[in-house]
Amino acid sequence: MINWLRHLKEWVEHFATKPYALHALFWIAFIEASFFPIPPDVLLIALAVATPRKAFKFALICTAGSVTGAYLGYLIGYGFFEVIGKPILSFYGAFDKFDSVLQTYREHGFLALFIAGFTPIPYKVFTIAAGFNQTIDLVTLTLGSLVGRASRFFLVGGLLFFFGARIKIFIDKYFDKLSLAFVILFILGIVTIKWLI
To answer: Domain for residue 8, yes or no?
Structure first.
């Protein structure tokens, strides 16, 4: 399994050298939002390391692909849950946790999408769950996906834009911790605003 994922990651990275790399970035971000196991950050980082000055453009393409792909995940959850959705959730070991995902949506729809979109949590689990019995409406799906995914990809793009290739090792090693810290700060900000108001 690990070898298979490593080969798949290398396959995604190889698109960075192709003339259609930007199209590949969009489509990998698109399919990752609904079923594909390799995050688009892999190709985003490879492209931004090669051309740091275009890092924000790459982040924008990545965001557009991922937000658009969230609708495919939603469609799978809404119309093809038994045939396609269940096997995808089972593959990621998330089917047993599906009820808790739905409960999280009922309590914190937008925030759940933002956190799933920004952190290493498999985003496709949440896009599929959003469509299941229309757990989340399309406006919340769009806004949560846009804010979460854009925050993630523009953070990566910004680090590479300002620091270049030397930041890649740092991102590879600490991105999970950085993303969790950012989410904690985001939640604390919301709580503080509500307390002040």
So the answer is: no
